[in-house]
C-alpha cells in the first residue's frame, strides 16, 4: 500500500507555482488532477496502440480493444459489479443519468407516475428527470433537506408511494458534502419496489463502493473526479434491467445486424455504446482505477476524513466564516461564506494567493435557494491534499478578510 503522504509527488500539475505561490488545489470535486501514471497510460496508447476498438483484425486494433476492455474489467471490480456486462462506459455521470432517464424511464412512465429526488441534487440529477417528465406527463417530486443540509428521511419516506417509479439520489452532495444515508433510503424504496439510481459522482472517488451491497439498481460516476480523464464515466445497472431497456443512441458497434427492415441490437454492454468511444480516455480511466487501488480506498477515505475534520475546525475558527452544510456525515467538501463577501470575489482573491477553490452555485441551484444564497465558496479535498494546504487556505482567508474589511 502506498504511503499517502508521498502521493502528492505523483501529480505533475501540483508541482507548479500559480500567481507566484506554490499551488494549493482545493477544487477536486469539480475535477481532480491526474497522476503521471494516468497521463503516461494515455500517452503510451496514443503513441503506440491507437486504433479503433472491436472492429479490426489487425494488431493495433486488438491491442486497443484489450486495453479498453481491460479498463471495463477494472471498473467492474472497483464497484463489485456482478458482471462486466453491467458496466456501461459513458462520457460521465451526466450521460449515465440521461441514459436511465431516456432508456429506462421514458418507455415506462405516464401521467400520474412520479420520479422522486432530494433537494440536495446536482443539476445532472434534476434536469434529465424534468425532461423525461415533460415527455411522458409524469411528475417530479422533491424530498426536503434540513438546515444542516441533510435529507429529511421521514419526509422522503412519506413521499415514497406506488406512484413513484424511480428514486434518484446522490451518494455525496457536491455542494455541501453531505453523505446521504443510502442504506436507509434504498431499503425503504425497495420495500415498495421503487427502482433506485444513485448519483455517485462524489462517492466513488472517496470511499469503497459496492453496488451489490448497496442494493440500488443504477449507480453513475465520472472518471475525471477520480484522477481519470474528462469525458469518461460509468453507468452500472442491474443486468436484468439493462437487458429490458432499449438503447437510447443508435449507431455503429451497438448492433449485431442491420437491414432497412430491422436492426438487431448488440448484447450488453455494447447495446448502449453507439459509435467510436473515448478509447484513450477510458484507458486512462482504467489507469486511474489502478492508481486508486494502489493507494487503497480505505486509506484514502481515512486520510480525507481526518483532513476534512481539520479543515472544518480551522474554517470555523476564522472570524466571519459561516459554514454552509454541517451534516453529521460529510465527505471531502466544505462550503462556506466569509462575512458578506461575494464568493466570486473571495475566490479571485484566494487565487491570487495560489489557492484554487470553486465559487458559485456548484450546479446545485436549489441547494443555494434553500440556504438563501447566490452561491458559496467551496473547498474540496482529494488524497493529495494535506494540512499545509488547509493552513494556506486559512491564511489566504485571513488576508481576504483584511482586504475586504
Ligand atoms: N460536479 C462540481 O464542481 P459530470 O459533469 O457528468 O462529470 O458530473 C456531473 C455531476 C453529477 N453529480 C454530482 C454530484 C456532481 O458533483 C457532478 C459534477 C462538479 O461539483 C462540476 S458541476
Task: Give a nutshell description of this structure.
This protein has helices at residues 36-49, 59-78, 93-108, 127-136, 153-159, 182-191, 211-214, 239-244, 279-295, 297-316, 343-352, 365-370, 387-403; strands at residues 17-18, 21-22, 24-25, 87-90, 114-118, 139-143, 164-170, 195-199, 218-222, 233-237, 255-258, 263-265, 321-324, 333-338, 355-356, 358-360, 376-380. By secondary structure, it is an alpha/beta fold. Helix 3 (93-108) packs parallel to helix 4 (127-136) and helix 10 runs parallel beside helix 13.
Topology:
Elements: E1 17-18, E2 21-22, E3 24-25, H1 36-49, H2 59-78, E4 87-90, H3 93-108, E5 114-118, H4 127-136, E6 139-143, H5 153-159, E7 164-170, H6 182-191, E8 195-199, H7 211-214, E9 218-222, E10 233-237, H8 239-244, E11 255-258, E12 263-265, H9 279-295, H10 297-316, E13 321-324, E14 333-338, H11 343-352, E15 355-356, E16 358-360, H12 365-370, E17 376-380, H13 387-403
Parallel strand pairs: 3-15, 5-6, 5-7, 7-8, 8-9
Antiparallel strand pairs: 1-2, 4-10, 9-10, 11-12, 13-14, 14-17, 16-17
Helix pairs in contact: 1-9, 2-9, 3-4, 10-13
How would you portray this structure in words?
With 405 residues, the chain is α/β, with parallel strands linked by helices. The protein has helices at residues 36-49, 59-78, 93-108, 127-136, 153-159, 182-191, 211-214, 239-244, 279-295, 297-316, 343-352, 365-370, 387-403, and strands at residues 17-18, 21-22, 24-25, 87-90, 114-118, 139-143, 164-170, 195-199, 218-222, 233-237, 255-258, 263-265, 321-324, 333-338, 355-356, 358-360, 376-380. The protein has two domains: 2-28 and 297-403, Aspartate Aminotransferase, domain 1; 39-294, Aspartate Aminotransferase, domain 2 (3-Layer(aba) Sandwich), CATH 3.40.640.10. The chain is built from 13 helices and 17 strands. The strands form five sheets. Strands 4-10-9-8-7-5-6 form a seven-stranded mixed β-sheet, sandwiched between helices. It has a four-stranded antiparallel β-sheet with strand order 13-14-17-16, with helices on one face. Helix 4 links the parallel strand 5 and strand 6 (139-143). Helix 1 (36-49) runs antiparallel to helix 9, helix 2 (59-78) crosses helix 9 (279-295) and helix 3 (93-108) runs parallel beside helix 4 (127-136). The longest helix has 20 residues, at 59-78. The chain is globular and about 70 Å long. The mean pLDDT is 97. The structure holds ligand C6P. Residues 29-30, 92-94, 122, 124-125, 170, 174, 199, 201-202, 222, 224, 358, 362-363 line the site of ligand C6P.
